[in-house]
Amino acid sequence: MAVLPYKRVLVKLSGEALMGGEAFGIDRATVRRIAEDVIEAVKLGVEVAVVVGGGNIFRGSQIAGMGLSRPAADSMGMLATAMNVIALEAQLASLGQSARAMSGVAMPSVVETYTRQQAMEHLAKDRVVLLAGGTGNPFFTTDTGGALRAAELECNVLMKGTQVDGIYSADPKKDPAATRYDHITHDEVIRKDLKIMDTAAFALAREARLPIIVFSIQQPGSLAAVLRGEGRCTLVTP
Ligand code: UDP
């Protein structure tokens, strides 16, 4: 097996990645395909942690108001992320891959409560660690949760799975002249005002000097391909 530059990675998936062609919720076939992609990455010898969003079910900022405070709405959003990791954990298990769902919001009868130490132990035992609850606090996003967990779990890279295969000079779905960057620095991302994740998430990644890979999660097999250095993506480094 070729030696990969990454020993441990954190993959950030938005909740929408689990919707497939549906408008809401969890599409079983899509969850299975993503689980297969994660297993392919594990088979390369990489330790994998996954932070999953909840936007396919609830986004706090969209539902707050009319008697629902933002912290209450964000709690609902964080619970949505737990539903997603439970689905992914079950799918990984049914494919024979050992995985542990953990949550930054304590719900011990449902999933393990996240502690850094326990997550590290799972990763060392080649279990996929699925992280729900984002940062565990309202007013944040799971992108920030992804950057936070990647930094504290000493991941070599934060891999953000998106609808497109990297960072473009403009939205490639709207502007046919948009070009994709193979490599860019954190500082250039700020200077060019490229939007790859929210400001808090990006600031944390930059501060921690955490490389970021933006790749397409829509493309089956692209996670492993990118890890092997073959897939299309954008690499952000300090
Ligand atoms: N959320 C939160 N704190 C966090 C992460 C998430 O309160 O640290 C809530 C927030 O309401 C958010 C929702 O959970 O809208 C779902 O997360 P996110 O919007 O990041 O999901 P994604 O867009 O990645 O699917």
Automatic annotation (TrEMBL):
Subcellular location field: Cytoplasm
> Could you give a single Gene Ontology term from the biological process aspect?
UDP biosynthetic process
Q: How is its activity regulated?
A: Inhibited by UTP.
**Residues of the Aspartate/glutamate/uridylate kinase domain:** 7-216
Q: Which InterPro entries match?
A: AceGlu_kinase-like_sf, Asp/Glu/Uridylate_kinase, Uridylate_kinase, Uridylate_kinase_bac
Keyword Nucleus assigned to the entry: answer is no
One Pfam family named in its UniProt record: AA_kinase
Task: Tell me which residues bind UMP.
Answer: G54, D74, T135, G136, N137, P138, F139, F140, T141, T142
**Its family?**
Belongs to the UMP kinase family.
**In Gene Ontology terms, what is one molecular function of this protein?**
ATP binding
NCBIfam families given in the database record: pyrH_bact (TIGR02075)
The entry's ATP-binding residues are K12, L13, S14, G15, G55, R59, T162, Q163, Y168, D171
Which terms in the GO cellular component ontology are assigned? cytosol
What role does it play?
Catalyzes the reversible phosphorylation of UMP to UDP.
Q: In which pathway does it act?
A: Pyrimidine metabolism; CTP biosynthesis via de novo pathway; UDP from UMP (UMPK route): step 1/1
EC number(s) on record?
2.7.4.22
Official protein name in the record: Uridylate kinase
Q: Which PANTHER family match?
A: URIDYLATE KINASE, URIDYLATE KINASE PUMPKIN, CHLOROPLASTIC
Catalytic activity, as annotated = UMP + ATP = UDP + ADP
**Sorted alphabetically, which CDD domains does this protein's record hold?**
AAK_UMPK-PyrH-Ec
Q: Which UniProt keywords apply?
A: ATP-binding, Cytoplasm, Kinase, Nucleotide-binding, Pyrimidine biosynthesis, Transferase
Q: In its keyword annotation, does this UniProt entry include Kinase?
A: yes
